[in-house]
From TrEMBL:
InterPro entries: PC_trans (IPR000374). The keyword DNA-binding does not apply. It comes from Luteolibacter soli. It is a multi-pass membrane protein. Keywords: Membrane, Nucleotidyltransferase, Transferase, Transmembrane, Transmembrane helix. It catalyses: a 1,2-diacyl-sn-glycero-3-phosphate + CTP + H(+) = a CDP-1,2-diacyl-sn-glycerol + diphosphate. It holds the Pfam family CTP_transf_1. Its EC number is 2.7.7.41. The chain crosses the membrane at residues 7-28, 48-72, 93-111, 117-137, 149-169, 181-199, 220-238, 244-267, 288-309. This is Phosphatidate cytidylyltransferase. It is an enzyme of class 2 (transferase).
Amino acid sequence: MKDPELLYLVGGVVGILLIATLVTKILIGKSGETPTLVNLRQRVNAWWWMMLVFCSSLALGRTGVFGFYALLSFLALREFITLSPTPRGDHRTLTWVFFLILPLHFLFAAAPWYGMFLIWIPVYSFAFIPIRSALAGDTERFLERSARIQWGVMTCIYFLSYLPMLLYLPIPGYEGQNAKLLFFVVLVTQISDVMQYVFGKLFGKTKVAPKVSPSKTREGLLYGGAAATLIGTSLWWATPFTPAVAAGMSAMLVAAGFFGGLVMSAVKRSLGAKDWGRGIPGHGGVLDRLDSLLFAGPLFFHVIAYYFGTNMYDAYKQPQWMYDAMRLWIGH
């Protein structure tokens, strides 16, 4: 938070929220507290709180950021699991997921131990989850239950953890400024959601997938996505990109966010729910606000790593303290 360019970005968002708050008050003063305007006020107020919490995590440094996203992963996975009944045979599996797999993954990420970060969930955890459920002896819908837990772990923990991992990307000439990359991803993706919603309400006619997400329209995606891309391009000065590359990255985030939200809406509808939860007034649950970031985060991370030719394996091998602790644990 000592970076002046990051403070400019924060100030810009605060300015937008001040305008949104003022406009909402004026509209309510003229039209009264209609359901639509009450929902708008709830959304704006929620954005104030989310902005405050997000900036507070940045102010605490890397430890604060990783702790913040670990908490978000816990809350998102809890919403994911809560939406459908969990048989007794899965209870102990979920205990291992919430209290071992999740914290260890973020420990490997924050250490950082990049090799283990990559494989802890897709390899070891994916193998462990069905094994632990099989030991419980409940075979009813076994494949469906195991796959559901694996999908929740993959999206709510693994995919989401790529956002704080942006802080560790070694980019030549951009050292110590990666917090702005994290801000860029979150800002462009969330603004894209807002712009698609607004333009969809104003001009939306053609539904993209009416049974999955009735509010998503081609017009909203086209116009809202273009607006978000322009905003992202205008922020090139806070990134290691040229304006042209910033435009491409922004368009990629728009597309990834849109399809990530669409996929998570399909999962949500298959579970018979409209929202993932009720934790954020006007927005639904934590996962409703994060769904567009789940696909955008890992895609953005790996595209940037490829673009700049970074080698995370060599840069972040197993920390010596972790190596010593593991040798002590196994008795050598």
